[in-house]
Amino acid sequence: MTLPYRPNVGIALFNAEGLVFAGRSHAAGPERIEPGFEWQMPQGGIEPDEEIVAAARRELAEETRVTSVSLLAATDEWWAYDFPPYDGPPHKLSAFRGQRQRWVAFRFEGPDSEIDVLDPGGPEIPEFSEWGWFRLSALPTMVVPFKREVYARVVTAFAAHAAP
After folding, report:
1. Domains (ranges, CATH) in the chain?
2. Which residue, among 7, 5, 13, has the nearest Cα to 158 in the 3D structure?
């Protein structure tokens, strides 16, 4: 039996200078992080019947506390990636072969002090240990290899919102 993909939303958060937010992830389980490729943009599961932009706003707030945003764009297509082989302990993502994502771009309208990745306020363990602003075009080289193709599509889709 082939496992299904988990519906997921990715978020490209741009600041006023056109740089994009990324956090240093310490994810475990099937989405394990490889040394040297710890950076990624926020992402998370979509609840049944949840609208894509609403899911993006919820996930962004859950992972960063950021709520001061305006919508720039959203992708219409789903882009999927497979998890690498995993034989570790049971994990909430073990029931999936990977994730299929739609992406949403927001403009950050608040001060950097609004961002709190160490205490994002939810019941989950923080997703990120630190964060920064980066050129969107650099993100595919900063993320784990199994996500690179999707990140390259994000770069193309949201290039108009990014710093040159």
Report:
1. 5-161 (3.90.79.10)
2. 13
CA nearest to 99, candidates 150, 50, 135, 54: 150
pLDDT value at position 50?
Answer: 96
Is the distance from CB of 82 to CB of 6 less than 8 angstroms?
A: no
Angle at 121 between CA 120 and CA 125, to 5 degrees: 70
Residues 43-74 pLDDT 10s: 999 999 999 999 999 999 999 999 999 999 99
Is the confidence at residue 28, as pLDDT, over 80?
Answer: no
Q: Helices in the chain by DSSP H: which ranges? A: 52-64, 139-142, 148-157
